[in-house]
Amino acid sequence: MARISPEPLHREQPVEKRLWKVAALSGMASYLDAALIVSIAVNLAIYRDAYDMGVWMAGAISAIVTSCIAVGSLVGGRLADVFGRRRLYNLDILCYALGALVITLAPDDITLLVGVLLAGLAAGADLPTSLAVVSDTAPDGARGRLIAFTQVMWMLGIIVVIALGFALSTTGMTGARLITGHLAVAALVTWHLRSRLELAAGPDVVRDGPRGDSPDEPRGVPLRNVWNRAALVPMAATLVFYVTWGLGANTVGQFATYLLVTVSGASQSMATGINLVCLPIGLVLTLAFVRFADGPWRDRLFCTAAIVQVVAFAVASLTTGAIVGMIVFFVLYQLSNPFAGEANYKVWSQLTLPADTRGTTQGITYAFSRAVFAAAAFVTPALLDHSPAVLLWTITACMAVSGVAGLYVVRVLVPRHSPAPAAAADLKVVQT
């Protein structure tokens, strides 16, 4: 069985340009995932008026997109490990484009739900697959930076949709269709570029068993490889971190605009504008995280950022959604989130989970987390209508739990699982 070398906390190596290309194309999974969720959030009030939806229907749409991402992650991650990651890598993105097109052209809320269903399933399937692709192509000394770069794409997805939402805030359904239409175009372009990548088995991997060299050949990874201590402990720890952190992040991503409009009394333009002004802070600091992702500062900064993140949600809770309090919240959240959020989860997962089941195990954590987010999204509009303070304080408690879980990963799992078993990577970029 092949092994990966210990985590290079004090050793970095230059990253080849072709590997950044793979990270960018794989990162489009994160871009399209974030953009889909946020586009529904930005357009939710518009959909509500155009389709005459109540609060429960609004919650159902948000819940469906998140639950479909969950199911897609679970199924897609497993299929990628069994049938080959390249096959899913190209198919997922094409299905996403079709779903985004249905959303864009939807004449009613039922058709909208069908498009959300298809795009959500495809987005979910692409998330664990694309991260496994990056890990398979990355050398040990650069894996953290390449994985972290996918989070930059995630931030870009949010910023682009919020910017479009702000620019088109007075155009109603026309603007909503333009926002989701750009997702279909982006997915098609990504599919075209991915299909031109030539991928082969990496030379740094020792193959075990009678497997060929074709990246499209079935991997045949048995499920029993998932249900052992080497996989279960890091999977459980990263799951606890991601699900508790994500309850806050998902609420912000899906309902920040909705909260500002319905609770804080902001206009659609003001609500999207507040988001837009604060988001570049997160983007710049996410780029900084990429620089630190293979070094000791990655986990050192986590502890401070986790505390600031809890303070941010506490401020929002204390002010119960008032405009001034929400502005302070957004600034603190964008200052801390890049160093104590999804980027950490992605890097920690790839460093501590066995490589032969990366798609399956990370698909499971994505699936369970997104299922929880979906359930939360379904009741969030009703909770905001009943008591914004109760919702915000609950999220604050969840962020505190995520900090404790992350501390366990940093102090125990990352050092313990540095020399982790790795499987034959079925993808390696070939220079063309």
General description of the model:
- With 432 residues, the protein is an all-alpha fold.
- Helices cover 75% and strands 0% of the residues.
- It has helices at 17-50, 55-83, 85-105, 109-137, 143-167, 173-195, 229-262, 268-292, 297-319, 323-336, 342-352, 358-386, 388-416.
- Helix 1 (17-50) packs antiparallel against helix 2, helix 1 packs parallel to helix 5 and helix 2 (55-83) runs antiparallel to helix 3 (85-105).
- The longest helix has 34 residues, at 17-50.
- The chain is globular.
- Residues 1-10, 200-218 and 419-428 have low confidence and may be disordered.
| Strand elements, count | 0
Q: Gap between N and C termini, in Å?
A: 30 Å
Low-confidence stretches: 1-10, 200-218, 419-428
Query: For the residues shown, what is the average pLDDT?
Result: 82
CA-atom Rg in angstroms: 20 Å
Order of helices and strands: HHHHHHHHHHHHH
Helix content: over 70%
**Which structural category do the helix and sheet elements fall into?**
mainly alpha
What share of residues are in beta strands?
under 5%
Summarize the main sheet.
none
The number of helices is: 13
The gross shape turns out to be globular
